[in-house]
Structures are given as C-alpha cells and as structure tokens.
C-alpha cells in the first residue's frame, strides 16, 4: 500500500477488499491451494508481477468490493459503522460516493497519460498536467501517478481495464448483483484457476478445461504436461 499521500474514507473498503478479502490475499491463497498444493504445479508458487496474470489479479482485486458488498449493503455499513468510527458525519455519504463514482469513470485517462508518456509523446510534466486535467487529480497525486507509470509502465491498465473485463466476464456468466451466490461462485472459480486475459475477454472456459478436453492428464498430483 502506498502511504505517501493521505488515504481518505472512500478508499477504506476498496483497500480492504483489494488487498485482503476477497482480493489479493484470497487469490494467492486459492492459487497456492488449488495449483501448488493439490496439483503440485510448483511454478505457481512464483508470482511474476509483469505478466498477463496481473490483469486477472488486479482486476479481481478491484472487482472484489462489488462481490463482498452490494452497493446498498456497502453504503449502509459505511453510514452506520465506518463513518461514525472515523468521526465523520455520514449524512452526505451518498452524495460523496455519487461523486466518487463519476470520477471513477475518468480512470482510463490514466491509461492514456501512460501511453503518451511511454511513447515519448509527452514528458513527465505533460503527463502530470494531463492527469490533473482529465483524471481530476490534484497536483501531488498527479505527480505520484507519473512516478507509478515510470516504475510500472503499462501495468496501470490492469486496474481499470482488468476490473471492467472481470465484471463483464462474471456478469455474462450470470454472476450479477441480483444473483450474489452465482457471483461468488464465478468469482471463486476465476481466482482458483490459471487464466489469461484472453480467456476472460472471450468468455472461454479456463485453460485447464481446454487442456483436459484435449486429453492432457491434469488431474493427478505432479502432472504438468503443458
Ligand atoms: Zn493490487
């Protein structure tokens, strides 16, 4: 977690869901249980950060907030528990999140800043100005955003594009907000199997199912035939 800049109440549940439950912690625990321990695929004990796997990891971690809470449940928890605990008057919580949701729609402006900066079309200052103008960041956050792009490069797309791809994949398979059990099941299956972004874009079954259908013997511990 980056603590260079203050973290506000609007990020509390986001961060808990993203880093902990049902995000990264659960993702890594399920990969370890299903792939490393049950199947003996020791290569899954290593997590390559700069890899397609990170789109699934960040996308599911961001989408996790909507799996663990419906919007109504989350707002009720924020107003009744979280905001009073932080000493903040919750009477304008709905309004606060309505604005946050609108700002979130500008998230792809970050990808565009990264694209232009990494392509050498704009300099760091230009990228920071872009983020302030189109992603409504304040100056400090925009500068931090540019540093992130410098260090992690195209990794930035894993958060917003990843989240949208994961949501679309799960909802297409019936895991809508109205069907929370199905949503959980699809989410768990996505976390517990080896996937690539192309798999969820086309709504394909997991790699493992494809391999099994091609008579690869994958069900026994130690089999790693691909
Ligand atoms: Zn993350």
Topology:
Layout: H1 12-20, H2 24-37, H3 53-68, H4 71-85, H5 93-104, H6 108-118, H7 124-134, H8 139-152, H9 157-172, H10 180-191, H11 197-201, H12 207-213
This protein binds zinc ion.
List keywords for this structure.
226 residues, mainly alpha, disordered C terminus, binds zinc ion
Largest sheet data: none
The parts where pLDDT drops under 50 for at least 5 residues are 210-226
> What sequence of helices (H) and strands (E) makes up the elements?
HHHHHHHHHHHH
Q: Name the bound molecules.
A: zinc ion
Tell me the overall shape. globular
- Taken as a percent bin, the fraction of beta residues is under 5%
Using only C-alpha atoms, the radius of gyration works out to 19 Å
Return the domain count. Answer: 1
| Number of E strands | 0
Indicate the structural class.
mainly alpha
Briefly characterize the structure.
The protein has 226 residues and is mostly helical.
Overview of the structural elements:
The chain has one domain (9-213). It contains twelve helices and no strands. The protein has helices at residues 12-20, 24-37, 53-68, 71-85, 93-104, 108-118, 124-134, 139-152, 157-172, 180-191, 197-201, 207-213. Helix 3 packs across helix 9, helix 3 (53-68) packs antiparallel against helix 10 (180-191) and helix 7 packs across helix 8. It is globular and about 50 Å long. The two termini are 35 Å apart. 23% of the residues are buried. Bound molecules: zinc ion (ZN). Zinc ion binds at residues 18, 24, 58, 61.
């Amino acid at each position: 977690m980056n603590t260079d800049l203050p973290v506000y109440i609007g990020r509390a549940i986001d961060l808990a869901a993203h880093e902990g439950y049902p995000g990264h912690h659960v993702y890594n625990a399920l990969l370890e249980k299903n792939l490393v321990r049950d199947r003996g695929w020791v290569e899954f004990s290593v997590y390559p950060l700069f890899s397609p796997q990170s789109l699934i990891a960040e996308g599911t971690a961001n989408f996790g907030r909507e799996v663990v809470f419906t919007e109504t449940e989350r707002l009720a928890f924020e107003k009744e528990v979280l905001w009073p605990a932080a000493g903040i008057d919750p009477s304008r919580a709905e309004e606060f999140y309505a604005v946050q949701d609108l700002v979130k729609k500008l998230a792809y402006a970050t990808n565009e800043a990264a694209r232009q900066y990494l392509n050498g079309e704009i300099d760091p200052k230009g990228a920071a100005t872009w983020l302030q103008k189109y992603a409504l960041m304040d100056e400090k956050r925009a500068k931090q955003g540019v540093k992130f792009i410098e260090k992690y490069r195209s990794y930035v797309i894993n958060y917003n594009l990843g989240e949208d791809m994961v949501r679309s994949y799960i909802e297409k398979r019936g895991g809508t907000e109205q069907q929370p059990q199905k949503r959980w099941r699809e989410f768990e299956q996505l976390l517990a199997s080896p996937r690539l972004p192309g798999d969820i874009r086309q709504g394909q079954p997991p790699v493992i199912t494809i391999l099994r259908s091609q008579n690869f013997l994958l069900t026994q511990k130690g089999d790693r035939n691909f």
